[in-house]
Amino acid sequence: MNAEVLSIGDELLIGQVINTNQAYIAEKLNSVGIPVTRMITVGDQPGEMLAAFQFAWQHFDLVAVTGGLGPTHDDLTRSVVCEFFRTDLVRDEAALENIKKLFKARGLPMTRVNEDQAMVPKGCAVMQNAHGTAPGYFFEQQGKIMIIMPGVPYEMTAMMEDFVLPHLSKIANRQVIRHRTLKTTGIAESMLSELIGDVSQLFLPNQGITLAYLPSPLGVRLRISVRTHSAEHAGHMIEEVEEKIRAKAKKYIYAVDQEDLEDVVGRILTERGLNIAVAESCTGGHIADRLTNVSGSSAYFERGFVVYSNASKSAELGVSESLIKEHGAVSREVAEAMAEAARTVAKTDIGLSTTGIAGPAGGTPAKPVGLVWVGYSDKKQTIALRFHYPTERRRFKDRTAQAALEVLRRKLLTPE
Amino acid sequence: MNAEVLSIGDELLIGQVINTNQAYIAEKLNSVGIPVTRMITVGDQPGEMLAAFQFAWQHFDLVAVTGGLGPTHDDLTRSVVCEFFRTDLVRDEAALENIKKLFKARGLPMTRVNEDQAMVPKGCAVMQNAHGTAPGYFFEQQGKIMIIMPGVPYEMTAMMEDFVLPHLSKIANRQVIRHRTLKTTGIAESMLSELIGDVSQLFLPNQGITLAYLPSPLGVRLRISVRTHSAEHAGHMIEEVEEKIRAKAKKYIYAVDQEDLEDVVGRILTERGLNIAVAESCTGGHIADRLTNVSGSSAYFERGFVVYSNASKSAELGVSESLIKEHGAVSREVAEAMAEAARTVAKTDIGLSTTGIAGPAGGTPAKPVGLVWVGYSDKKQTIALRFHYPTERRRFKDRTAQAALEVLRRKLLTPE
Question: Does residue B111 share a domain with residue B57?
């Protein structure tokens, strides 16, 4: 059984919207044993849409379509679906009830265009929309499946979870595909590749195992993929390869699969019963934002100081004006003073700090754009490490936050 | 002239990586008058790749390919390109110099796999990579163009800016496509659609103008698109439609095109010579992070208090323990006290605050998950507004930060 993901929408073709639906749908179809062979995006033109439907239906066992089901004039998917399956619209009472309920809950008057969304193509199973007014359609014909869902991501994902995936798990074939991703940071792709060496030493080629290198600004991810007859066997195969990779690159691997660095440090802090405060200059609150993305972070994240101005560094953290004057705000000394003060002012076990030049303005030959100091302080030591990320502002903040969280992780794992 | 964007990579088909390249390339090709008709993604299998190359070359005038040019074993695009164009590899001295230079700048030893990346298909113009080791290939044959670039986004974007776009601007045909997006927040898609009414009242259909509604968690965007013979005419057409839309929905439109809410409030604060401090509980630093994404924000962003614990609300902002005890940390009273204290402690013109229940834990019947108060304080007034976003944690933070920045924008535009 193979699948295509088909996205519809001019907003995608002009590059206004980044398509997150395709990745989500692909991941979920994979998880129930249905590999995605192709993804395609076409515009809101009925002719293009119909041609894409026809090609997909001919070449794939399953087609997952999103987009063009909204209430406005540029939403044309429903009429193309009717044309493709040679069917007509009928009113779906459950969809109408759902629309009425949604409007009632929001305390808004229902509009005529919304009511019209309860008209659905005859011959499909109707999937109700938990978060919006457009129902989805599930067609099963001639041994093939076509799933049509709204393009709004959180409406689509709820429909996948509630209806599509439970249904597909029952009917998908029994081949098992499993992936595991080892996330590294602080090492370049080519260095990592040299460190790990020839993949044929890690596993015999052509036995259903692949290893992929995926670079990103936050680090290189290593994806192990296996395809075999049972979940148990897949698990063993993945573990064997993972062990061999860890033997060579353990230090750089900070997390597995969906886990982020903030999840990992959050778990360690929770286990140890430690808490933390952060003092951020150049990252402007981004480290605090990441730490508090984790549910349960209030147990270890005490507070954050976004000390953007020099005055705030002195007022909030007691970093002396003379220290700033002598060494500059972007210096080892100020990073250390900030980390230590974050810890002592907030009365936490650990303090973490950043001070750097995000750019594009503010650089000098001695202190160029991209220079940054990360400070770390606990009850036994206070240190600062220098990094250099000469890139654009948002990427600089991302990379600096990642470096700071990695400094924290390594210190937590090797306390002195 | 029409184009297809072709992405290569198993990581895309299993949903591990969200494809941001397609949107970027589409937007840039549009900007030089080349509409993208289709986007497609295939895996790292040479057979699939070759078939995709053949289909694209047959149906489109221009094909923009990304991915599979890296130094590791799973990068197969180069050999498929050679097969497709029936050509061989030759060493490109400029590419070799570039690779050597990159490694020298990083202070890293050069590896054999990197050196091999200087071998390129014969018959193309070689595009040097400003940020990485893989060069790109620009083929122009039989009146058609194929552009092959690395999949790493910042390497690809630099290659587009430095080589592809300047070259294409010269040869693209003279049809002009222009888009303008009006960004709204605080109003549902169907309400906005009712407010704006029948699009045929805004412009005659089939005169090359379209209007699209694009909902997102941060608000509904309205995209006006025009296609005509001259840039001047396109500009007039867009302005005419924009004026008609603004006449009906002005209050909800906070920005145009790429501008974000933080850019807009940053511009107003700069113009007025005002500065701001924020006190965040449930948004955990996300508002400070957004405000400091703007280059030049140090002129008006003084500091941020990420007061996650109740102790920090008292210690940093002087919010009395009895006030928190009486009304709860998530209350109008505490939101107002936080906003006022942010302003007075930091000695700024404006204070902005958030306090809410991000979830998934911590809700009660009286104060459910998703409840949030946004506080605003200036020298003349201190207020708080209530919002309710019962959604998952990260989306809650995003929507709350957007609501808070919109409260700020409206207050800045209508001072009392």
Answer: yes
